[in-house]
Amino acid sequence: MIRDFLDSLSESIERLGDTIRFLARILAQVPSAVLRPQLIFDQIYNAGALSLVIIMLSGLFVGMVLGLQGYDLLQRFGSEDALGTAAAIGLVRELGPVVTALLFAGRAGTALASEIGLMRATDQLSAMEMMAVDPVRRVVVPRFLGGVIAMPLLAAIFSMIGIYGAQLVGVQIMHVDAGSFWSQMQASVELRDINEGIVKSAVFGIACSLIAVYQGYHSAPTAEGVGTATTRTVVTSAVIVLFLDYLITAFFLK
What we know:
9 helices
């Protein structure tokens, strides 16, 4: 049993090191990839614009639930007018980046992993290498940069739609004063709250995009291998996002 644990630990450390080396290889190719911006724009569209519907719907419903739960809690202390503050800070600092990252991993991350994995299974990546085309520069880097750029934008949209959903429930249904809702929110939300949300969404974008392209690029060239890479992308991204969320939150609360 101890041997199995040590073998699993050794494999995890080896995979972590391999992922870091893969990230270094990606970063080394970024200057060359930037010279072909159209490839990056296409991947921003694939990772960002095609995820807008699920992001906006989820943001609306999360904001509405936050409005209901926040109103119920604040009503017990006679502080219903602070609903805007609670909703905005909760969405900007925490729910916006985290939920967006989880949705991004489930929608865009799996698409990236399966697409690159399919290229591996059909020998398209090997064909590029035979033609002296670096598949990391041509395939991996644009997808990685597209995900990194799209993630903060999606998180910002999620938070804005979530605040609207909280306002819809709090003001229109629970009859919280609209002036108090917006004025207290504007007075209470500070620049450090927005910075925390930006940092989280950027870090989550790097982590989710890296995991997706790594799993796809190193997947076994079979249908089962592509499926395994897709599953690992979602599971690993979810765990890493929650772990990084704790670390970043602890850093900003110092």
